[in-house]
Amino acid sequence: MKVSCQQELLGKGLSIVGRAVSTKNTLPVLNNILIATDNSGEGGRLKLAATNLEISITVWVVAQIIEEGEITVPARLLTDFVSNLASENSVNIGLDEQTLTLNVRSGRSEANIKGIAAEDFPALPNVTNPANSAVIESGVLKETVGQVSFAASTDETRPVLTGLFANFSGDTVTMAAADSFRLAVRTSPLTEEVSSSFNILLPARAMIELARILVDDKSLVEISVTGNKSQALFKTDAIHFTSSLIEGNFPKYQDIIPKNYSTRTVVSTQELVRAVKVAGYFAKDSGGNIIRVSVTPGEDLTPGSLTLSANAAEVGDNRSDIDATVDGAAAQIAFNAKYMSDVLGVLNTGQVAIELQTPANPGVIKPVGKDDYVHVIMPMHLANR
Amino acid sequence: MAPPFERSIAHLDLDAFYATVEEVVNPALKGQPIMVVMGEDLISRGVVATASYAARRLGVHSAMAVSQARKLCPEGVYLPVRHALYEDFSHEVMTLLAAEMVQLEQVSIDEAYLDLSDRADPTKLMVELQDRIVQKLGLSASVGLATNKLTAKMASGYKKPAGLTVVLPGEEAAFLAPLAVGKLHGVGPKSVQRLEQHGITTIGELAEAELSLLQELFGPRLGIELHQRASGEDDRPIVTERAAKSFSYEQTYFEPLSDRREFWRQIREMSAGLEARLKSRGLLARTVSIKLRFNDWRTITRAQTLLVPTDQAVTIAESAGELMRQTWKRGTPLRLLGVRVSNFCEPDAPRQLLLPNHSLPENKN
After folding, report:
1. What one-character DSSP code corresponds to residue A174?
2. Is residue A264 part of a domain?
3. B355 interface with A at CB cutoff 8 Å
4. CB contact A157 to B (< 8 Å)
5. For residue B304, which of A303, B80, B208, B338 sits 20 to 30 Å off, Cα-Cα?
6. Helix (H, G, I), strand (E, B) or coil at B79
7. Residue B70 to chain A, least CA–CA distance (Å)
8. Inter-chain contact B355–A378, Cβ cutoff 8 Å?
């Protein structure tokens, strides 16, 4: 193998596939990145791939191929070396097939890295003849995953709740995630109608990695799913990302979303974010991370208000008032501060609406002016209020 | 009376507790060999939790397989454990002790430490308490009195049943010296073997051993600790009930056990006992853990935090069962199985409500 490519492209490619390298795997070859020449497309490309057996990432980097070949080398070492090379120089890569040693040269730096034969690298999942497929803009998918994935559970004892449920139907995809305390649902446009509707359950952890890699633009991502629903492939021009899918049935979340409310409060997102942040400092030591929320409707000349308060017996207390447009009766409820700040962190409209019923019913948070997102949070029960 | 800087600690241990409670609630059994058995199967697979003194004279002891006990004592009375009943009696005993207004630490269902440092005559008080426990509850207790917990506990086991053993200040090391080294807290069978290889069989020999040897055998910290313990030194304070951090049950198996259904039965029984204990204190537990000891004495614990704090046996058992599924490979023999609840909160503490999706129908993928 003899290849030459730009430091910047190689460095970027390595950092992307590095997301799929397992850190604690007992199989040494899984700590490696597969490097292979690829003449299949127009011009020469260098293929980089890594997998942790749950996800796999393949990236193609434009390169000049002088001699073909393939090898796997430790991801960490190669990435650290390449990222410290000067970006104006090209990187020359050579392989000693006898000793399985990769020679990397750039400017006045050189490294020899011992590898493991490419045959020992696990076959990457292949999604040929997909049973279902869909196309979505990269930026839209990135935002959609970001708005729901944080609500997924990390508790492996109920695997379905560690997943992102995705329903592809017509020209939209709806993604939902829920641990046992909150639910996030986002509906986004596909660029073309799907030929038939389908559901999949994607590991949230894998989707968070995908969202990190995706660029925030209008380039297209093609999603394909194998017939047995074991793998999904996310394909962009230069990246293939596959993830294994979770088996099992996601709870029927539609029934959890309250259909009506007794109080609807609209406030400035920015002001609410700040008030939650401040209350959070006090809630942290309250035993339960509790923020109390109190809504007061306006009267003829005074505007309505939303009051957030938190108190920790040993630390002190805090209270913030925000102007609010209130539709309905006064209301009180208590939420975990983290759940409030998590959802507020992913909303990007100027105003948000909070819809409440009783202190024991789920609260709903929605962006104002967009009807593509719903977030449901279960309150804290305060026996001694 | 001890000088003011000496502590006076009593350890009280109820004699053959489960079996004696069974005698009290059914006086017709009095004096007979009674085996209280963990596990519903009283015929073969269960394990003896407690044997009455009449049974012990025939060679039966706790942690023995029922099949073995049946051979030694075919005519004996075999009863299933009733944790909730024993918890009631235990609660009565502890209430009686607490009435003395001393620092009290309940260490298990049938054991407690009392700090009697400010009492004029600790011995007289303990004799009175022993009497009162017999009069009011029909139970007998053995007591050890010493300047620290370690020696007091060793003293209470010195003369049983209904014994009272006092170790005077300064006499701790001399009292412990002739006892077998395996009786010392923290010295398991593996350690006994290792110590024997170096000619150490009694606690006295352990106390006289070179510290460097013990540190080499057990590591720097445990080496020092064992040396101190063997010399009868122990400054652990009494931890009162309010500060208790966990409740647990453990069952040891003299014959290693590997029967899955038997383990499940025992988990349910221990969970019932934990429910009774939580309810009597008005507490909920957030964390459930299990403890397993394998044939090679390797001991592991695994814990799970519940979504909702509980005082329900069913929930505790389910969680412990789930932990078993994750950690225990079917067929692996165990020498000990324990269930523990911890991370307590009061029932009126704020709690996070759950989405109602646990009972909802599911989307088809």
Report:
1. E
2. yes
3. yes
4. yes
5. B80
6. strand
7. 41
8. yes
Taking an 8 Å cut-off on Cβ atoms, the answer to whether B357 and A180 are in contact is yes
The predicted complex's ipTM stands at 0.80
Distance, C-alpha B348 to centroid of its chain: 30
Domain boundaries, chain B: 9-15+85-170, 18-83, 174-230, 246-345
Question: For residue A46, what pLDDT is reported?
Answer: 95
Q: Which of A375, A336, A165, A130 is nearest to A256 (CA)?
A: A375
> Burial letters for A154-188: b for 16+ Cβ neighbours within 10 Å, e otherwise?
eeeeeebbbbbbbbbbeebbbbbbbbbbbbbbbbb
Q: Is B111 a catalytic residue?
A: yes
Give the pLDDT confidence of A188-224 residue by residue, as tens digits: 999 999 999 999 999 999 999 999 999 999 999 999 9
CA distance A180 to chain B (A): 6
User: A144 lies in a domain?
Assistant: yes
- Across the interface, do A250 and B352 touch by the CB < 8 Å criterion? no
- CA A166 and chain centroid, separation: 13
Give bridge partners of residue A106 from the DSSP assignment: A109
Closest by Cβ to B353, choosing from A178, A201, A378? A378
What SS3 class is residue A251? strand
The amino acid at A342: D
Total tally of structural domains belonging to chain A: 3
pLDDT at A241 over 60: yes
Question: CA geometry: angle at B162 spanning B159 and B166, to 5°?
Answer: 50
Please provide the CATH number assigned to the domain covering B246-345. Answer: 3.30.1490.100
CB pairs under 8 A between A and B: 81
Catalytic residue among B92, B111, B205, B225: B111
Q: Model confidence over B95-135: pLDDT tens digits?
A: 899 888 888 998 888 999 999 998 889 999 999 999 999 99
DSSP B197: H
Residues of chain B with pLDDT under 50: 1-4, 359-361, 364-365
DSSP state of A123: P
Q: What is the pLDDT of residues B32-74, one digit of tens each?
A: 999 999 876 666 678 899 999 999 999 999 888 888 999 999 9
What pLDDT, on a 0 to 100 scale, did the predictor assign at position B360?
44
How many angstroms separate the first and last alpha carbons of chain B? 77
Structural domain B174-230, CATH architecture: Orthogonal Bundle (1.10)
Residues 300-329 of B with CB under 8 A from A: 304, 307, 322
> Could you check whether the bond before residue B161 is cis, i.e. omega within 30 degrees of 0?
yes
**A202 in reach of chain B (CB within 8 A):** no
Rounded-to-integer distance, Cα B141 and Cα A361, Å:
53
Q: Distance (Å) from the C-alpha of residue A290 to the closest C-alpha of chain B?
A: 8
Alpha helix (H) residue ranges in chain A: 7-17, 75-83, 138-148, 204-213, 269-283, 337-344
Nearest to B354 among A181, A248, A334 (CB): A181
Domain B18-83 has CATH 1.10.10.10: no
- CATH hierarchy code of domain B9-15+85-170: 3.30.70.270
